């Protein structure tokens, strides 16, 4: 992992800010880009010009404010921004949201009860390299957006819609919407914005009963957000109509009344929207506490925009394969899907007149006599020879997190368990819409017959587990026609197990809290935040996108560690992923203590495995290079001169001319071969003396270090001997204690049998998971009963079920519907109480046996 260096600002007047480059918005389909009208204000001056944004907002300004004086912005590292040094270690939750269009970060401040709006820029590392390491910078001063009235609850999560105009403030039992561009008043950098509560009649005001499990904006609409509550109801709200009553309401019944074996099977945990893949864009995936996954399809916000090309593709697929089948069930489901498409998107029937439009708006529609099926639980398909392995490879604890990702041709579902395990599955088939025939939908229409809101009870298909036989891998792909008909038979798609990732978190008395986040650039990569830090998980095997690749387990790389892995509570209260303009990802996290950190994922490379060459020679077999400064030529000596024969020299006399000449010649040869060699040897020895001196000093230092090591070993040897003696004494003491333990009456107790172990595991599961789920269900039912008892007889507000209203006046059956719902709720509560009493008796009996 490398750092992006921040270049210095170019030469410019002191009053002008340095140049900026905004981070691009993540890749979104055309349906989401079309509805954005909010301009991108300049980040060079703060506070940013929200008056321009408010002028383009769909909602008018509530009060005119005087023009503000703008001051030049100072850019500091994001982690050093004053907004993140505000609490001095005070906790309390919060949250963060990222506006990719305007390059702004929203961070909730629980101490100020407001949201900091911080302008962010990514410095270009290629302009100039000044040695700095900061890449993500924030503007100072920043604005703080305050709600109009006191919220009265602690905000645990914030969410921003796609155009950056509305901020959703989520609490454990309450919801509110803060309109960013609708200013009530302002004082310097503090802006008071209009705030409206959400579903105040449905959610209790005393923070008791129904809990808000998850709330998030719909990816295909700027005005719609969904809320999943603990009473197993999925609600879709519309900002443009009414925040007190939901636009669409789905009562989830995963198990038929009277057939509930585990309370966790009826307690939802989280949900996730589908992505741009056929019917996945109209699907909502819902996770329950026992790990079961259900699907609602189709779910479309009224007035949302979708790509006409994608809708036409789905429409042609249904007409080509569904209607031509010989199976009557396939034809029936295909007719329902075609009727829904034609009514929801009437542009399909008028293509000749509106061919220029690229987007199609969803019209309000719901079948009167049918309701959506809660598809699931999605079963897992496995090979016949691996069925036993698939049954045993289950995760422990309860499900705590959920995420959907579309990677190529694969739809990947990731489930986080409280035991620190991540379960990765892929859809083995396409999702198709399903309806329960004969179960009517409650509609609320206006005087013109236009649908205003919808409510329905979504029962699961009891025959779905039997449909797994038709999805064996051995038969998949062998007969294309039979596989296509199996899709439209009304069965839920199976899941293909990809991997189970164990994060090796320590076991705690309560389940760990794990949060999952998608990578904005790499769909095969996601992040998991837990009490021990932040991990990155990368999938290396996608069965449908890359079928030729071998099955490779995913890789896990820790990015941050807290050093306090024993806690089960998360250390992050806010986390966003930013895709910058250079193809890298910036991870911005806010801890529960109010600190901010930035991790740059530039140049992230996974470590390559260590490879050993067995055939290579050992280090001992390689001849070490020659050391020293004396050459081999000098050591070998001078080459001896070629002397003439001695007989010719005897005839010469020293006084003769020939003798003198010969003597002079030999003197010259001696000088060339011996005197010059001696001079070279002298120079080499003189230079070699420094080398020998250095070597001697080095050897002397090493010798002194060895002596010191020997002295330290001698001093430690006594301590080691003492520790060994102490260990022997402890060992003898432990042996004596073991012998004394053998004399106890419980020493001869036999180990638990397999049936007893299974029963003990069932009791532990009931104590850890089932009791919490049962308390949550009872609290939700109690809150709903109180709401029914407090409302007037003729009123419809807060009933939770919207009644059918004809265009003309007619008879009303409000009291009958309320009584039927109350009776069904009481029946469910009585069944749960009976099961609870039975399990409590078993626990009491087991505890008495243990005491005896």
Automatic annotation (TrEMBL):
Residues 38-58 have a biased composition (Low complexity). Its main location: nucleus. Keywords: mRNA transport, Nuclear pore complex, Nucleus, Protein transport, Translocation, Transport. Residues 1-29 have a biased composition (Pro residues). It is found in: Nucleus, Nuclear pore complex. The keyword Protein transport applies. One of its GO terms (cellular component) is nuclear pore. GO terms for biological process: mRNA export from nucleus; protein import into nucleus; ribosomal large subunit export from nucleus; ribosomal small subunit export from nucleus. One of its GO terms (molecular function) is structural constituent of nuclear pore. Residues 1-96 are annotated as: Disordered. InterPro entries: Nucleoporin_Nup88 (IPR019321), NUP88/NUP82 (IPR037700), WD40_repeat_dom_sf (IPR036322). This is Nuclear pore complex protein NUP88.
């Amino acid at each position: 992992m490398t750092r992006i260096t921040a270049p210095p600002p170019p030469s410019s007047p002191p009053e002008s800010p340095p140049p900026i480059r905004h981070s691009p918005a993540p890749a979104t389909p055309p349906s989401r880009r079309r509805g954005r009208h909010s301009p991108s204000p300049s980040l060079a001056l703060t506070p940013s010009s929200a008056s321009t944004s408010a002028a383009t907002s769909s909602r008018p300004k509530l009060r005119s404010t005087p023009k503000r004086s703008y001051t030049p912005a100072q850019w500091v590292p994001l982690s050093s921004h004053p907004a993140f040094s505000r609490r001095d270690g005070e906790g309390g939750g919060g949250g963060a949201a990222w506006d990719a269009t305007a390059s702004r970060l929203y961070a909730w401040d629980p101490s100020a009860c407001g949201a900091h709006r911080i302008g962010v820029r990514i410095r270009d590392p290629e302009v100039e390299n000044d040695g700095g390491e900061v890449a993500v910078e924030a503007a100072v001063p920043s604005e703080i957006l305050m709600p109009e009235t006191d919220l009265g609850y602690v905000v645990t999560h914030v969410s921003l819609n796609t155009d950056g105009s509305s901020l959703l403030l989520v609490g454990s039992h309450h919801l509110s919407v803060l309109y960013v561009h609708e200013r009530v008043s302002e004082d310097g950098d503090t802006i008071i914005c209009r705030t409206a509560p959400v579903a105040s009649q449905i959610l209790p005001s005393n923070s008791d009963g129904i809990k808000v499990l998850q709330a998030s904006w719909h990816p295909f609409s700027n005005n719609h957000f969904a809320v999943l509550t603990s009473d197993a109801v999925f609600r879709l709200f519309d900002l443009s109509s009414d925040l007190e009553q939901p636009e669409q309401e789905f009562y989830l019944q995963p198990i038929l009344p009277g057939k509930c074996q585990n309370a966790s099977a009826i307690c939802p945990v989280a949900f996730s929207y589908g992505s741009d893949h056929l019917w996945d864009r109209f699907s909502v995936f819902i996770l329950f506490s026992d790990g079961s996954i259900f699907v609602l399809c189709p779910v479309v916000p009224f007035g949302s925009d979708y790509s006409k090309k994608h809708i036409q593709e789905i429409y042609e697929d249904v007409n080509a394969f569904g209607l031509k089948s010989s199976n009557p069930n396939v034809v029936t489901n295909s007719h329902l899907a075609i009727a829904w498409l034609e009514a929801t998107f009437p542009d399909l029937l008028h293509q000749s007149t509106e061919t220029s439009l690229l987007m199609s708006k969803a019209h309000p529609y719901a079948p009167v006599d049918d309701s959506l099926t809660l598809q699931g639980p999605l079963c897992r398909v496995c090979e016949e020879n691996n069925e036993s392995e698939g049954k045993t490879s289950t995760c422990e604890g309860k499900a705590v997190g959920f995420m959907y990702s579309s990677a190529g041709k694969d739809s990947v579902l990731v489930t986080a368990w409280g035991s620190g395990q991540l379960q990765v599955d892929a859809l083995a088939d396409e999702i198709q819409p399903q309806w329960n025939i004969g179960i009517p939908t409650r509609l609320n229409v206006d005087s013109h017959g236009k649908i205003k809101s919808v409510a329905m009870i979504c029962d699961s298909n009891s025959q779905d587990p039997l449909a797994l036989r038709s999805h064996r891998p051995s038969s998949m792909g062998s007969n294309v026609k039979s596989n296509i008909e199996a899709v439209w038979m009304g069965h839920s798609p199976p899941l293909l197990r990809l991997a189970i990732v164990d994060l090796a978190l320590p076991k705690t008395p309560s389940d760990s809290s794990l949060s999952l986040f998608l990578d904005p650039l790499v769909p095969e990569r996601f992040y998991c935040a837990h009490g021990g830090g932040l991990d990155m998980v990368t999938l290396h095997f996608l069965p449908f996108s890359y079928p030729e690749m071998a099955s490779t387990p995913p890789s896990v790389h820790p990015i941050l560690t807290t050093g306090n892995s024993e806690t089960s509570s998360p250390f992050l209260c806010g986390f966003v992923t930013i895709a910058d303009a250079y193809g890298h990802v910036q991870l911005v996290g806010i801890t529960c203590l109010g600190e901010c950190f930035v991790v740059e994922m530039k140049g992230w490379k996974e470590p390559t495995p260590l490879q050993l060459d067995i055939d290579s020679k050992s280090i001992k077999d390689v001849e070490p290079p020659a050391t020293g400064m004396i050459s081999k030529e000098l050591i070998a000596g001078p080459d001896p001169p070629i002397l003439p024969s001695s007989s010719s020299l005897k005839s010469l006399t020293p006084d003769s001319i020939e003798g003198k000449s010969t003597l002079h010649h030999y003197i010259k040869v001696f000088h060339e071969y011996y005197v010059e060699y001696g001079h070279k040897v002298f120079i080499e020895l003189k230079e070699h003396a420094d080398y020998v001196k250095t070597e001697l000093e080095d050897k002397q230092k090493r010798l002194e270090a060895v002596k010191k090591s020997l002295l330290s070993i001698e001093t430690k040897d006594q301590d080691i001997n003492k520790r060994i003696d102490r260990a022997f004494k402890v060992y003898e003491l432990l042996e004596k204690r073991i012998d004394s333990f053998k004399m106890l009456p419980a020493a001869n107790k036999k180990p638990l049998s397999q049936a007893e172990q299974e029963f003990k595991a069932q009791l532990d599961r009931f104590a850890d998971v089932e009791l919490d789920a049962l308390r949550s269900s009872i609290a939700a039912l109690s809150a709903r009963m109180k709401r029914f008892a407090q409302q007037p007889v003729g009123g419809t507000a807060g009933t939770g079920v919207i009644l059918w209203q004809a265009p003309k006046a007619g008879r009303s059956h409000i009291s009958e519907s309320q009584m039927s719902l109350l009776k069904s709720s009481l029946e469910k509560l009585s069944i749960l109480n009976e099961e609870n009493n039975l399990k409590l008796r078993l626990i009491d009996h087991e505890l008495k046996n243990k005491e005896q």
